[in-house]
Amino acid sequence: MKNTLTIQPFESWVPSHTRPFIISGPCSAETEEQMVTTAKQIAATGKAHALRAGIWKPRTRPGQYEGAGEPGLAWLVTAKKETGLPITTEVATAAHVEACLKAGVDILWVGARTTVNPFSVQEVADALKGVDIPVMVKNPVNPDLELWIGALERLNKAGISKLAAIHRGFSSFEKGPFRNVPMWDLAIELKTRIPGLPLICDPSHISGNRELIGLIAQKALDLDMNGLMIESHLNPDAAWSDAKQQVTPAALAKIISSLVVRTVSSESKTFKDTLGVLREQIDQLDDDILSKMAERMKISEKIGQYKRDNNVTILQVNRWDEIIHTRISMAKAMGLDEGFTRDLLRLVHHESIQVQTKIMNKVEDRV
Ligand code: PEP
Ligand code: MN
Fold it and tell me: Residue 283 pLDDT more than 90?
């Protein structure tokens, strides 16, 4: 289907012309003190261009913190007054939109759980008719590019032309190293289909843990994304939502400082050139290989536990012989060099033995 969106250039509506555009703040606004102190610390780093906080939180299970609701908007407004930074929050209903417009929120975003539902997106779009406010649309939780584009179209049809997309990864049944699998090719495809659309990456929700944020952020910049949304909190471990993936404002500053911003000489030139495309494919494959390797080691751990509990030795020569033979003939059929395959298998097997040895010698969790 043809994509006919009328989008104003990012530079015409973002409050800062720097690249990348950094949005940061807590997952949820919890108290006025938490919100304002976090915001001040973020502003003091000089690394962020906008503040975020969830006011209405879509939680997977009931009984978890569902946000401060409307009173929390006033805290966000105070944070803006104190720091001079524009503010952004998630809206999912017409009532949310009205409350945000009344409070003077600068930028709105539609969350991943809302983008999946055309009824909800339409409700938000209808509430925004005739309003000139920037709106960012997170990808739907499921990897459906049409649904993502559909949400952008609904908003665009309602007259919203200051539009951006937020890539926050996709939910998956298989548990890998990421909370939400990035599936970079989907974000690239979106950019290819709607070239003028600013794209912001949310490494916090992709990684689900603070260690991977820098890596994801760098990758997003290398894919020529326009900005990053990173969750930060004055005391991350004590956060009322998404504690594992939040960082302190000081850690945020470190992450941002360590990013390498590569410039493109002409608009999206390297992004599209052949070498760029091939490298992206290589990057994607490397991610897959590493994820699979991590999965393999987890299984080795389980095997180690099972062998330990049944008093079986770690090394079983027959099994190793079988692995070598079957894998090498398979790899040969795939056009891989035998020596390379043998070296690779040796390395993997060695690590697998190490993992199992650790388990074998671990006393505390024996039954
Ligand atoms: C959030 O930004 O805190 C949030 C709820 O994100 P998502 O919609 O991506 O799950
Ligand atoms: Mn969050």
Answer: no
